[in-house]
Amino acid sequence: MSTPMVLTAAMVGAETTREQTPHLPISPEEIAEDAARCREAGAAMVHLHVRTPDGKPSQDTELFRAAIRAIRKRTDVLVQVSTGGAVGMSVDERCGPLRLTGEDRPDMATLTTGTVNFGEDVFWNPRSLVRDIAKRIKELGLRPELECFDVGMIDEARYLAKEGLVALPAHFDFVLGVPGTLAARAEALDFMIASLPEGSTWTVAAMGRHQLPFVELAAERGGNARVGLEDNIYVSKGVLAKGNWELVEEAAKRAKAKGRTLATPQEARKLLRLD
To answer: Residue 23, Cβ neighbours under 10 Å: how many?
Structure first.
């Protein structure tokens, strides 16, 4: 419990719309402003998707460049880019942010290790595609966050490690509560924690109404948590969060109430082995 807790703000996503919440940031300036407020509220990292000006999900390299530059002008928060993109995107499209190098290079990138039902759609991640993205992440010199919607995806990470595509111990993100995947239940979280390779770190991202309660579960179990408008738009029942920062603010209160301190970006970089 003495280990600082890393809070990640999943700010934009590919599914949430302005019709659902007017507080979803879309432009680079809006994203950067919200990211800075998330940092002030206690987040050490932001998980980043981008949108076109009309709000459509995109993995365009230049949109990521603009967002990352805007964020880094405002704050020192770590930037983790998504390679999941939106359902139906090709592998080259999904890997748009992995073309960024130099000062625009992200701090981390996600890697989903299996295919799952995703609501009424299918999040398509056959083994060949997973290995393709893993190679691109490795070539950029980044450590991946291994996004796991089920326990079998943790086992697949072990195969990737045997093939030299990821390094163990690794950092995992347990995505719980997406319709069609493993539900957000405490016993499911405990099973995933017990299945981790020795020495690995983990974050939990629970969907909807489960998001903030799972911050408390993560705090109690010595892990980390992801909150934000990508996964949940309400700060309490029926009350829209005014921005990602308000969800981070509430998560920080709950983590501290469980006796956890919050990691700074510099501490998170060390804890997640990003160097």
So the answer is: 18
Q: What local confidence, expressed as pLDDT, does residue 1 receive?
A: 62
Q: What's the rounded mean pLDDT across residues 208-229?
A: 98
Q: Which phi and psi angles does 265 have, rounded to 5°? A: -55, -40
Q: How far is CA 34 from the centre of its chain?
A: 16
How far is 93 from 103, CA to CA, in rounded Å? 22
CATH class of 7-271: alpha beta
For the segment 41-91, what is each residue's pLDDT rounded down to a tens digit? Answer: 999 999 999 999 999 999 999 999 999 999 999 999 999 999 999 999 999
Residue carrying the six token digits 């928060």: 77
What does the CA dihedral 31, 89, 98, 269 come to, rounded to 10 degrees? 60
% of residues, the chain, pLDDT over 90? 99
Write out the DSSP string of 48-61.
E-EE-TTS-EE--H
Tokens for 181?
Answer: 């995947």
Domain boundaries, the chain: 7-271
Instruction: List the helix and strand counts (H, then E) for the chain.
Output: 9, 14
Whole-structure pTM value: 0.97
Find the helix or strand (DSSP H, E) in which 173 lies.
Answer: strand 171-176
pLDDT band at residue 275 under the 50/70/90 scheme: confident
Work out whether the CA dihedral 126, 172, 63, 165 comes out positive or negative: negative
Q: What is the DSSP string of 197-232?
A: PTT-EEEEEE-GGGHHHHHHHHHHTT-EEEESTTT-
Provide the CA 73 distance to its chain's centre, in angstroms. 21
Distance, first Cα to last Cα, the chain? 23
